[in-house]
Design goal:
The chain has 369 residues and is of the alpha/beta class. The chain has one domain: Alpha/Beta hydrolase fold, catalytic domain (Rossmann fold), CATH 3.40.50.1820. It is built from 13 helices and 14 strands. The protein has helices at 64-68, 92-96, 137-150, 164-175, 178-182, 221-235, 239-246, 249-259, 265-278, 285-296, 324-333, 349-352, 354-367, and strands spanning 2-3, 8-9, 14-23, 32-33, 40-41, 46-58, 78-81, 103-106, 118-121, 131-132, 158-162, 204-208, 311-314, 337-339. Strands 3, 6, 7, 8, 9, 10, 11, 12, 13 and 14 form a ten-stranded mixed beta sheet that branches. The chain has a two-stranded antiparallel ribbon with strand order 1-2. Strands 4-5 form a two-stranded antiparallel sheet. It is globular and about 55 Å long. Residues 1-47 are annotated as: Disordered. GO terms for molecular function: hydrolase activity. Residues 27-39 have a biased composition (Low complexity).
Amino acid sequence: MSRTWTEHPARTGIRRDVPLDFASPEAAGGSRTGTGSDSQTDDDGAARLSTSAAVWHYPAQTPAATAATAAPGPARRLLLIHGFRGDHHGMALIVDALPEFEVFVPDLPGFGATPPLQRRPAGAVGPAAHGPAVHTLATYAACVEALAAALELGPSDVLVGHSFGSIVVAAHAAQTSPAADAAPTRPAQADPAVQILPARRWAGLALFAPISDDIFTGSLLPGAAAVDLYYRSSQWLPHRWAQALLRSPLAQAVTNASMIVTREPEQVAYIRDQHRQHFSGYADPQTLLQAYWASSRHTVTEFAQQLDLPVLLVPGAKDQLSTPAGQRRLRRTLPQARSEVLRDTGHLLHYEKPAQAARALRRFVATLD
C-alpha cells in the first residue's frame, strides 16, 4: 500500500525481539522522577534492568544501479525513537519515505510490544526479577544505549527521535558525548537525569518536533495544566476506572482536535485511525504515568550544551508543544545544529509531513560524509 503524501510505497519491517540487560542509572547514584508526584526519591538498590525489546528492522531498498553510483562513505543506519503514548507505528511513514536507509525502530519499554522494564538486585543470577522498574528519563536514555549496543550501531550511524523521543535521544547523546565521558564527574550544570555512560559517538542526531520549552510556562501552561490534571486524576482512581479514563475515546478526540493541523481528509482519517489503534497501547497505568512524568518534566534544551555532535532540528511551524521563541533558543544553544522548519504542520509532522521530514533528514545525513 502506498500513501500519496509519503511519496513512497509502504515498507514492511521484520520484527526482532532483542534481549536487553543493563545497569540501572538510578542505582549508579542518580535520582528518579516520582511516579505519583513531583518528588524525587532514591532507587531502592536494583543493579540491573531488563526487558525484551520489540524492534522492527527495515533493510535498505536501494536499487543496485543506485548503490553502484552512490557516493563513497559509510552506509549510515538509522535508529528511530518514538514519542509518548506511541510505538513503532508512529514512525512508519518516515521510514517509508527513506527507502535507501537501513532503519531500526523499537517500541520503548512499556509501549507497544515491549514489556516494561524489570529490575534485578545486584548479584542475582538467572531470570529472577526483583520487580517492576521505575521508568525515568535516565532509564529510557540508558535503554537507548543498550539497544544501540545490541544492534551494533555506532559512530557511522544516526540517532533520531520524535517528541518525547527527542528528549530521550538528547539525554542519551549527552550521556555518551566524548566531553561527558572525559569528565571525572557529572558537570555541575547537568540535569540529574543524566548519568555518564561509556562513550558512543553517533555520526549525528536528528530531532523531529523537539521539545524546546518547559510546558508549564507561558502560553503552553493552560493546556499543560489540563493534561497534568488528566494524568494525576488517573492515579487517584481504582484500576478499572483509571483504565477507562486513560483509554477514553473522549481523550483521543481531544488529542485529535488539538493536535491535527492538516485538513486533507485522507491524512486526518489516517491520524485518527492511528490514535484509535495505538494511543492505548501501553502496558499498564503505572508505567504510563511514569513515562508521562519523564516526558513532561524535561526538555531537549536541558541537554543542548552537552551535545557536541551534528544535530538536525525539524520543528513544525505550528507546533502545539513548543514555541517559536523556544525553538530559536534551542537552535542558538546547540553548537553544531541546523534547523529546517516544516510549514503547515505542528507536532504531528511525522504523520502530516513525512516526506518533507525525510528529505530534511536525507540532506542532513549527506552533510555527515
